[in-house]
Specification:
- The complex is a heterodimer of chains A (560) and B (601).
- Chain A contains 18 helices and 22 strands.
- With 560 residues, chain A is an alpha+beta fold.
- In chain A, strands 1-2-5-4-13 form a five-stranded antiparallel beta sheet.
- In chain B, the strands form four sheets. In chain B, strands 1, 2, 3, 4, 5 and 6 form a six-stranded parallel beta sheet that branches. A six-stranded antiparallel beta sheet of chain B has the order 12-9-14-7-8-13, with helices on one face.
- In chain B, helix 9 runs antiparallel to helix 10 and helix 20 packs across helix 21.
- The two termini of chain B are 34 Å apart.
- Classes of the chains: A alpha+beta (560), B alpha/beta (601).
- At the A-B interface, helix 4 of A face helix 17 of B.
Chain lengths: 560, 601
């Protein structure tokens, strides 16, 4: 069942003795801050990436020094739930071993950047001591499971969060490699544990799962390999609509690669969730393309073989026949900033964290402020899929203390930020991401200001618009679902994508390629002008572009 | 003739001195085929004269030479003085033998009639490495009575070190104590040694001419005859073009270390890995300005010195030493300012404080802190001549052709206590491309790779001490040497001053470097130094030594070299299972055999 030719990474996985490789030796090698090449692939399965500060590369090369290698550690944090105690540990690790900041990701995880090799083990061990692990946070496995942070709406939210955590646990690799390498766990003789779900070579490619809770689609449920849309009936979780085969990554100039929205496959009850999810994973394990990594995501398996085949395979493997999908409706993908009262009388405060970067900058001392809040907070924290943060479960009587700290540390940016900036997403990109072709996070403030100015010029100031920017076409900031997206092509150059909706239901389209800032502003200007002139009441930009015919309606590739 | 460029040995040559020199010049640098052609040519000439080739007559039994010149020197200055004297004597037909201290047959000392010692002092009053056996013997209990010996000592040193000329002084005193007759008073020379050395050599020549026996057939016994003069010298440096000046450390808090590449194209200068490059530098202009300001002088004052009349500012810029202080200079400041603090530093027992004081003090500090009314001639008269700075060459000509590479730390940068600019390091670091840098090659024949290329080498060089080992490794690669190479390097931070990191990584990858041990002293909790790595690698290091490896140490003389020495003694003691004294002796023996070599400063 495995494709005849296998990619080099398949061989590395197969020879790795369940993800051990020579990571221990690599860590001990004093001559370089890097790992052996094969180990650089394997540590992803342990939740860490080798990176280097690309701003320094040239200076260091001239100085006859190797690149400034460091490691990014990504936590596994199902649904983005984190206790104040965990927050404080991560905060101190960011200061002690990292680059002084925490990054909240679009997958509701923390990223610690800038950890050097000889402190990597200490850092991961300290995280685990606080009961935060990084197992399978990257690599060809099921990664951090997303769950909607739509808590105020319904008591069923807790049930959704519960299933997200169960799924994450169920799909963990069984290898003890992580414990051996990072936690001084006892060595497993032979190091060849059974991996009943994944097998010896794990999945052909990364695998992402998400739980959405209508009417909010903050997780962009159709962007994932495996999605669950909670169906709440009479205030109780009845089950989930299953979605399969979404995924956003693409490669510039390669039409065989494309972002794809997931297919709605049917309805299942909560107790059917794990067997069905496992069947999806094992089907992808057995039929995914192991020869060409660019064609290895589940979306291509389904696009190539058809949804019916896939559903039949799931039914055969799980013994469960899906019911017809049940009705649901999404209204938005964004977070509702500010306080909201939950169904249980507790309060939740959603804060805007631009690009998810928790750092101290001038008056905005986000990191210090959140550490202070963590020190007094009695509820928990929720990292949102929009790179934001919810301070959750606050008693009404405690709100004033949180408010005081929020104001004192400049954490109330959502009050003053322009809508375009408040809703925007940016991936990390330069200087640390090895895949980045252009700036994203560092460019976000300037580019949103420029866009806002242009909107202002057309009398559109303050209109909500969903903008996302990504340093490369892999789509960590889910750009292909935005109304306006910039996808990095080269330093200072972007592809301009237009026409997504605000509910995560429609992909945008490539509108112009390889534009610099002047270029994309010039391309947008007449469109803004038309929108300002011809829009219907409350008509969003993406909707307008389609209705007006300014964007041709096309069928995205790979749709079933 | 041993090899091209090597010595011509002239004990039994049927040639006079002048022709021996001519011959030496003629064969210098020739390769084997040319030499063979030359021998054939000479044979042909002989045949044309109708002569037959006869075996040379057996040498007459040598009478004991009239005098022996012994030299010990780390930088080559002492060797040159000794060679110059030997050449002069030879020119006068006076028979004298010339020996490195390391090759002096100690048991012959008792029979020696006239001994001329040229000896330099290094570090903290230490002898040159290859003179240790000589000085240990002389200073030790086994030294014989020397009542029939006449001697004279020329002591070389650097007055910017507290124990200036210490070894020469001790030899002079010890020989007298052993009953020998001091022919004339010892001369102590600072780094501007030429005049003093010439005066001393003239006295020696005078004495030996008087002692010369009745005229006898001239006979030359030059064990290390006159080398062919290098085309460029300290006095007449070659103007090299700077082709690269690249900082190779990163960050503001880190000492600025430069990789410097100079072009020797067209100079005919040649060097071997281990040699040093003399850089005739100018003082930093801002330091000159500071000195003038602190001394409340304009710089326009005309000063005559060494037969030259120039403005004071010019003298300070490139004629006089202003970035290093010497003990005599401190004494002058102590006397003129009446500073009790300075006077205390100069008292016996305060050598450590004095040393620390000297390393972090420049002339401008003395002027500022111990104000004295200086007039221009007095100030100029107090300062010694600016001397070239020597840098261990960091390249092999076999790898880099006409270039020569240096690794230069800027003294006025980084670290906890950035000092004031050093003369040459500042000069080099601030040159742009195509700048002109006057240089000459200072041979360091003691610090050479093993002739047998299959021998292993262990190179210990923290900081810029790693420079010659870059040259060594290039040489070993270029010559396809089969011996293993082990480098022990140390620095402060892995990320910012791991000098030549990429090159070592490549050398490891291609197997050229067998092993690289690293010690970083400011990374994380434990501060590691090279001596710890030596101790940790003791077993393997001992095995390497036992299998014939040579050990090279380069870098700081005051702390690193003694620590490394002690670590090596411990390794031999522990893994050779011998008492510490025996271990020390074994290490000394390695030194005497040329298998434990140090280039420390």
């Amino acid at each position: 069942m495995v494709a005849p030719a296998t990619s080099p990474l398949e061989k590395i996985k197969a020879a790795s003795r369940r993800l051990r490789g020579t990571i221990i030796e690599s860590l001990a090698e004093p001559v370089t801050g890097a790992l052996h090449e094969d180990d650089q692939q394997l540590i992803k399965f342990h939740g860490t990436y080798q990176q280097d500060n690309r701003d320094l590369r040239e200076e260091r090369r001239l100085a006859k020094l190797e690149p400034a290698y460091s490691f990014m550690i990504r936590t596994r944090l199902p649904g983005g739930v984190c206790t104040p105690a965990q927050w404080l540990v991560l905060d101190s690790l960011a200061g002690r071993y990292g680059n002084g900041s925490l990054r909240l990701t679009s997958r509701q995880a923390f990223q610690l950047h800038g950890v050097i090799k000889r402190e990597l083990k200490e850092t991961i061990a300290a995280m685990n001591a606080a009961l935060v692990d990084s197992i399978a946070a990257c690599g060809d496995v099921n990664r951090n499971v997303l769950a909607s942070v739509n808590m105020p709406e319904s008591p069923a939210h807790a049930a959704v969060q519960h299933w997200a955590a169960r799924l994450s646990e169920h799909l963990l690799p069984r290898t003890r490699a992580y414990h051996e390498i990072w936690l001084d766990g006892e060595k497993v003789a032979g190091g060849e544990e059974a991996e009943p779900i994944y097998g010896p070579t794990y999945l052909p490619r990364k695998f992402k799962a998400a739980f959405a809770m209508p009417p909010v689609n903050d997780v962009d449920v159709f962007a994932h390999d495996l999605g669950f849309i909670a169906i709440v009936e009479d205030g109780q979780l009845a089950g989930f609509n299953l979605t399969v085969g979404g995924g956003l990554g693409a490669t510039h100039g390669d039409p065989a690669t494309y972002p794809r929205l997931a297919d709605l496959a049917g309805f299942l009850t909560p107790e059917q969730l794990l067997p069905v999810a496992e069947a999806v994973v094992t089907t992808q394990r057995d039929f995914g393309d192991r020869g060409e990594r660019k064609h290895a995501r589940l979306k291509y398996t389904i696009a190539d073989r058809g949804l019916d085949w896939f559903k039949a395979e799931i039914a055969r493997r799980s013994g469960i026949a899906l019911q017809a999908a049940r009705p649901f409706a999404f209204t938005s993908t964004g977070d509702r900033y500010g306080w909201s009262e939950g169904h249980d009388g507790r309060w939740h405060l959603a804060l805007h964290i631009e690009s998810g970067r928790v750092a101290d900058h001038g008056d905005r001392r986000l990191r210090s402020g959140l550490a202070r809040i963590a020190a007094i907070h009695r509820g928990d924290f929720r990292l949102t899929p929009n790179q934001n943060l919810v301070i959750a479960g606050v008693a009404a009587a405690d709100r004033w203390r949180i408010d005081a700290l929020v104001a004192g540390y400049g954490l109330d940016g959502h009050r003053s930020a322009r809508p375009i900036r408040r809703e925007a997403l940016a991936c990390v990109a330069l200087p640390t991401c090895p895949l980045a072709m252009a700036e994203a996070e560092r460019y976000l403030p300037a580019v949103t200001s420029a866009l806002d100015e242009l909107m202002e010029k057309h009398g559109l100031g303050g209109e909500p618009i969903l903008f996302r920017i990504s340093g490369c076409p892999n789509g960590c900031s889910r750009p292909y679902l935005a109304e306006i997206a910039l996808v990095g092509k080269a330093p200072g150059r972007y592809n301009l994508h237009l026409g997504g909706d605000r509910m995560g239901l429609r992909l945008n389209q490539l509108y112009r390629e390889n534009l610099d800032e002047r270029g994309f502003l010039d391309a947008l200007s007449p469109l803004f002008a038309a929108w300002a002139r011809d829009r219907r009441e409350n008509e969003a930009f993406g909707e307008f572009l389609h209705r007006s015919g300014l964007l041709a309606s096309t069928t995205p590739p790979g749709s079933a | 003739v041993a090899s091209a460029g090597a010595a011509v040995q002239a004990q039994a040559y049927p040639l006079d001195v002048a022709r021996v020199e001519l011959l030496a010049r003629l064969v210098d640098g020739l390769d084997a085929p040319t030499l063979q052609w030359l021998s054939g040519y000479a044979a042909g000439l002989a045949a044309a004269q109708g002569g037959t080739i006869r075996a040379a007559p057996a040498a007459e039994p040598e009478s004991a030479p009239l005098a022996t010149i012994v030299h010990g020197s780390q930088t080559g200055n002492g060797r040159r003085v000794a060679e110059a004297l030997a050449a002069k004597l030879a020119g006068q037909g006076i028979q004298a033998r010339l020996l490195r201290a390391g090759e002096y047959p100690l048991r012959e000392l008792a029979r020696e009639r006239q001994l001329f010692v040229v000896m330099s002092t290094h570090g903290d009053g230490d002898p040159p490495d290859d003179a240790r056996a000589f000085t240990d013997y002389l200073f030790g209990r086994r030294a014989p009575r020397l009542s029939s010996l006449g001697f004279a000592v020329l002591a070389l040193g650097d007055s910017s070190y507290p124990k200036y000329c210490e070894i020469g002084r001790r030899i002079d005193e010890r020989l007298a104590e052993l009953g020998a007759n001091r022919l004339f008073a010892r001369v102590d020379c600072d780094v501007d040694f030429e005049a003093g050395a010439a005066q001393w050599a003239a006295r020696a020549l005078e004495i030996l001419e008087q002692a010369r026996p009745a005229p006898a057939p001239a006979r030359v016994a030059m064990l290390r005859p006159v080398a062919v003069p290098a085309p460029w010298s300290r006095e007449r440096p070659f103007t090299a073009e700077l082709v690269e000046n690249q900082r190779i450390t990163i960050g503001d808090g880190v000492r600025d270390v430069r990789h410097i590449e100079l072009s020797l194209a067209g100079s005919g200068l040649r060097y071997e890995p281990g040699d040093a490059l003399g850089v005739v530098a100018e003082n930093p202009p801002q330091t000159v300005e500071s000195v003038l300001r602190a001394a409340r002088l304009t710089g326009g004052e005309l000063i005559e010195r060494d037969g030259e009349r120039r403005e004071l500012a010019g003298w300070l810029h490139n004629g006089l030493e202003i970035t290093r202080v010497t003990k005599p200079l401190i004494r002058k400041f102590a006397d003129r300012s009446g500073s009790e603090e300075l006077a205390a530093l100069l008292r016996p027992g305060n050598e450590t404080s004095l040393r620390d004081f000297m390393t972090r003090t420049q002339l401008v500090d003395l002027l500022q802190r111990y104000p004295v009314d200086w007039d221009a001639p007095a100030l100029a008269g107090t300062l010694r001549q600016l001397v070239p700075r020597l840098y261990s060459i960091a390249s092999s000509a076999k790898e880099v052709g006409d270039e020569v590479h240096l690794t230069v730390a800027r003294l006025d940068s980084g670290g906890d206590d950035p000092g004031r600019p050093g003369a040459a390091s500042h000069f080099l670091a601030t040159r742009g491309n195509a700048a002109q840098v006057p240089v000459y090659v200072e041979p360091n024949p003691r610090f050479r790779l093993p002739v047998d290329a299959s021998r292993d080498v262990i190179m210990i060089g923290p900081g810029t001490g790693v420079a010659p080992f870059r040259g060594f490794l290039q040489e070993r690669a270029a010559t396809g040497a089969s011996g293993r190479n082990w480098l022990v390097f140390g620095a402060r931070h892995f990320a910012s001053d791991f000098l030549y990191q990429i090159e070592w990584q490549r050398a490891l990858k291609r197997g050229l470097l067998t092993r690289l041990d690293l010690a970083f002293s400011r990374d994380g909790g434990q501060r590691a130094y090279v001596q710890q790595r030596i101790a940790e690698a003791g077993r393997e290091l001992y095995d390497w030594i036992e299998s014939g490896a040579s050990i090279y140490v380069c870098g700081d003389a005051t702390r690193m070299a003694p620590d490394v020495h002690a670590a090596l003694v411990s390794v031999i003691e522990c893994h050779g299972a011998v008492p510490a004294d025996t271990a020390r002796e074994r290490l000394d023996r390695l030194g005497a055999q040329g298998r434990y070599l140090r280039d420390v400063y």
